[in-house]
Amino acid sequence: MLLTYQWLNIFIVEGPIIPFISLLNYQCAAIYANDFGCSLKQLGVRECIQEAQNWIYGDTYLILDRPMSSVVDFIAKGLQVHLDWAVQRVQYGTHGVKLHSSDGLIVTADYAILAVPVTILQHGVITFNPPLPKAKLDAIQSIGMNNCVKVLMAFSDRFWPEDMFDVVCTNCFLPEIWITQYPSTSNHTDGRAPLGKFIVVGFMAGEVAAAASRLPEAEVIRRSLSQLDEMFGQVSQKAEYDRSGYCHGIKVDPLNDIPDRSKDLHNFLTRDHVLIPREYVQCPRSRPASAFFQGGCVVNWEKESFVRGGYTYPSLNAHGARFALAEPLQKRVFFAGEATHPGVNPCMQAAIDTGRRAASEILSLDVSGRL
């Protein structure tokens, strides 16, 4: 079984094209591997081909103007949802299913759908009685899932082209950035204005994310701002900046009137925390990101106890593992989640599709007398 970077090197010979080869590897790493949530050398060709053959969702991006929780809340309407109820053990058999929580509570059901990240199963966070069969254990261990790091930065003003929403950056600190403008809201009951409606999200995966996670969070934001300054500095803009630092009616001053939001959000960093030099914020033409930065945070998904990583990627020697992971246990415990998608689709569509598939599997049984 070939890794993707080995497959590329089959067609490469030593000689004067080495600089081009290095550029090609950088581009593949930034455009392809980072999008899959891993490093280029971790991608398995067979699952990459499987993913390409099974992608049916088109190329259109869906950009939300509100948090993802809005989607979850909409889907959950009419459902009874228990939060902070961590499942520690799943007991299943002909009698049904018993879910044991970490604090000793028990829920009894006829059927259960398990949709936790594959890392939770790999780390043994949830135990099963009877134990999982060997085929499923092998499938769990063969599916790869790395860490992902997101750098969220809020700005008081836009300094990029209006129609820009996604940029892939070759051989940069942030391999990819997403850009969103949120509508103004009036639901701030504390009397303070929103931090900034212009949002840039930097996305890192695989080895890049592992390296970034070892840095202090303030340093991660500083390097991200430096990259944005380099990308967008000295770009001709419609706004005219005067010496007082005004742009579009917004005063650029990094040291005064900074709302203290450090207590509102976990590890939220303002301009003071990041220690942006004064000379940077006084140069909105050459360093627009540093000048307009209002605050941000670094989200390290590996540290989220119920996630422990980003999402699965096309893995080496994992062909067929996703089918095996999706197999029900004694027609009582059913599996969903993007790791169980046969099309190797590590996206929200896969989570929704596999949830519907698991629900359909239960409804296809003779459950009329139970549900």
TrEMBL record:
SUPFAM superfamilies linked: FAD-linked reductases, C-terminal domain (SSF54373), FAD/NAD(P)-binding domain (SSF51905)
UniProt superkingdom: Eukaryota
Protein's organism: Physcomitrium patens
Lineage: Eukaryota, Viridiplantae, Streptophyta, Embryophyta, Bryophyta
Entry similarity comment: Belongs to the flavin monoamine oxidase family.
Name of this chain's protein: Amine oxidase domain-containing protein
Domain Amine oxidase: 62-248, 296-363
GO terms for MF: oxidoreductase activity
InterPro entries: Amino_oxidase, FAD/NAD-bd_sf, Flavin_monoamine_oxidase
Pfam families: Amino_oxidase
